[in-house]
Design a protein that fits this description.
Blueprint (H helix, E strand, L loop, with lengths): L8 E4 L5 H12 L4 E6 L10 E5 L5 H10 L5 E4 L16 H27 L4 E5 L12 H21 L5 E6 L19 H13 L4 E3 L2 H9 L3 H4 L1 H10 L4
Parallel strand pairs: 1-2, 1-4, 2-3, 4-5, 5-6, 6-7
Helix pairs in contact: 1-5, 2-3, 3-4
């Protein structure tokens, strides 16, 4: 079910900074007729050609208002997320885990539920969920974020099955470290540019792809899943035991 960006109406959540800002710019550059940029503080949505929308995905009233305001949407990109770099068991409280789950899973679910009928009325379109390589494995230093992205991955797969009958393409996007503010403190040599991620998403939905794996690390992890306890978690255990987060 390929979906063309040129001439489409697109809504991006978390569009006030980082990857969301680049998504919005990329949609404009690829000919989208209307681009809505959702953000908790809509004044931060300042890309030329992007319509600001006040949208905190954890607030049901704002999600409902966005669905009413943006009733012409053909493509929804669920990008809004928080990452608190917190372990699950040794963190002082579960507050970080609850915040991540509230935004990354429940917020994404709320947007999917609100916009599924909108997409159906407009002919099907595309629903894109920005996930993560840690949807597939738990980095113990960041495990509560990974748990929220694993939940969002399950949501994405379920939504694909539920929405296929209405002609909606559901695409999960997976990435390792992206060179944005969220990953600024990560001491890794290889970060993919947000521009590359956004362009790969455009190419993916226009090709009708249900998954977009944006970088070599992500593709390696996906290929390792049948033997993840050996190929992935032995290194994670070594990092945890040494106190070094990679």
């Amino acid at each position: 079910m390929p979906v063309t960006v040129d001439g489409a109406s697109v809504l991006i959540t978390g569009a006030g900074r980082g990857l969301g800002r680049v998504f919005a710019r990329t949609m404009v550059e690829n000919g989208a007729a209307v681009v809505y940029g959702g953000a908790r503080d809509e004044s931060k949505v300042d890309e030329p050609g992007v319509v600001p929308v006040r949208l905190d995905v954890t607030k049901p009233d704002e999600v409902a208002e966005a669905a009413a305001m943006c009733g012409d949407v053909d493509i929804l990109i669920n990008n809004a997320a928080v990452m608190r770099k917190s372990p699950l068991l040794s963190a002082p409280t579960l507050d970080d885990a609850r915040e991540e789950m509230e935004t990354n899973y429940f917020g994404t679910a709320a947007m999917c539920r609100a916009f599924a009928p909108v997409l159906a009325r407009n002919g099907g379109g595309a629903l894109v969920n920005m996930l993560s390589v840690v949807s597939w494995f738990a980095n113990p230093f960041n495990s509560s974020y990974g748990a929220s992205k694993s939940a969002a991955w399950a949501l994405t797969n379920a939504a694909r099955v539920e929405l296929r009958h209405q002609g909606t393409l559901v695409t999960g996007v997976f990435a390792g470290f992206i060179d944005t503010e969220m990953a600024a403190a990560a001491a890794v040599q290889s970060k993919i540019s947000p521009e590359s991620v956004a362009e790969q998403v455009v190419a993916g939905i226009e090709a009708g792809r249900e998954e977009v794996l944006t970088d070599d690390f992500t593709r390696t992890v996906k290929a390792s899943l049948p033997d993840d306890l050996t190929l992935i978690y032995s290194a994670q255990q070594a990092d945890w035991d040494s106190g070094v987060w990679t």
